[in-house]
Amino acid sequence: MAEVGSESNPLRVAIIGSGPAGFYTVSNFLKHADVHVEIDMFDRLPTPFGLVRGGVAPDHQKDKSVTRAYDKSARQPNFRFYGNVEFGKHLTLSDLKRHYHQVIFTTGAQVDRSLGVPGEDLEGSHSATDFVAWYNGHPDFADLSFDLSCESAAIVGIGNVAVDVARILLKTPEELRETDIADYALAALSRSKVRNVYMLGRRGPAQAAFTPPEIKEMGELEAADVTVPADEASIDAATRAEVEAADDKNVAKNVQIIEAFSRRQRSGKPKLFTLRFLVSPTELIGDDNGKVKAIRIVKNELYRSEDGSIRPRATDQEEIIPVGLVFRSVGYRGVALADVPFNEKWGSVPNDKGRVTTESGEVVEGLYVAGWIKRGPSGVIGTNKTDAQETVACMVEDLRAGRYFSPDEPSVAAAQALVESRQPRFVSYDDWTAIDKAELAKGEAEGRPRVKFTRIEDMLAAANR
Ligand code: NAP
Questions:
Q1: Cβ(214) to ligand 1 under 6 A?
Q2: pTM score of the predicted model
Q3: Mutate to test the pocket of ligand 1, among 160, 200, 279 (most ligand atoms within 8 A of CB)
Q4: Burial of 339 (0-12, 13-18, 19+ CB in 10 A)
Q5: Is residue 117 pLDDT above 90, yes or no?
């Protein structure tokens, strides 16, 4: 038998998850022209592109244009997409070992982290991840509802997800109509009474997790002014010296933008975005009906911890902000995969440069990870390109060294027959193309870039499945 990776005996790779890390795995494999590879990509949703479809903000259409490159990869003859097929439900790891030499998980980080303060379970308290998935039309979240009848909302955390949530809450219906936001979210947000949005950071401007273009955009909103309390926007002389010495352009720019925000006067726009620093929530306060009516915060001071990082420490100064909605936006975590090692503390799969390892660091042959399930939720979409490149290099190295599964039936037809037997309503890439066309056509009819299907049955109907 010809060696694995040759034309007559191609390397067979299964990718679980069709987000950016999954597609960058494909494009990185395509760069290894000497390796003949057959790639099957699985996703539990009928639609590909993961967080680009379900996470990237709908008003950031430019960021979504990366799917054009993914589409190019998907059109290669050695690539197949199996949507509506869930790992752990329709397919197990032992199934995959029968048909593939290597399996790579690019499943991202799907659930939110909690705050651990009293009142977190009150009505009106939500995770930002749920809200994001809801307004992006993710079918698992389409039935959620958010009561937007209050005047004020608080977002805890100051990463880019928090900024996305703030921006979507503050945009006008006209601005939102120009996006591919889910139509039910467009309707709900158009009726929204939310006028004040607070974004609460536990540390200072020099430690903010958002990036400069994202926070700058908050100063350019059509219907909302921006304000930052001057005492919270200013950084002390020692921190300023550190920022300058560190030569981190993002931090320096963030600090500059925030200082400029703090000098702004209100210009009479109907809504207000208030960015707060050095505050932590200590309680969500409910009304008699168990609904959030306020958030109690404590003022923090910063100190340098033993590991050298700057940490917040509560003072005895408290404040209560009346709000009817709270979104916690303090990061995502990955979800454990059946029969794959998982580190609960990190919320990701233990690995060495993308090779899955046990908790004690031994490499598990044939299993790989890329993207957020590998490194945790950090970076921008493009970060997954180099991340996947590192993992694919390991996969190719392992191929050369003969380290891979020995599948009994390493053929396209056998794998497809298995998928068909487990999930007859799987969605191929051509089927997705039909869904895509139908969404674009609906969008065109309504003068919007796209109107998304938000129910799996509607997606399958559009694909004739
Ligand atoms: P993130 O960038 O890690 O930010 C998490 C925020 O939560 C930080 O401000 C963090 O503060 C805060 N936090 C954590 N625990 C907290 C607690 N107990 N109390 C108060 N605050 C707490 O996470 P993310 O916003 O979810 O974003 C995930 C990744 O996606 C990031 O890499 C982000 O840049 C990326 N993303 C990019 C874009 C874009 O490029 N436009 C859009 C969306 C998301 P500390 O720093 O003090 O821990």
A1: yes
A2: 0.96
A3: 160
A4: middle
A5: yes
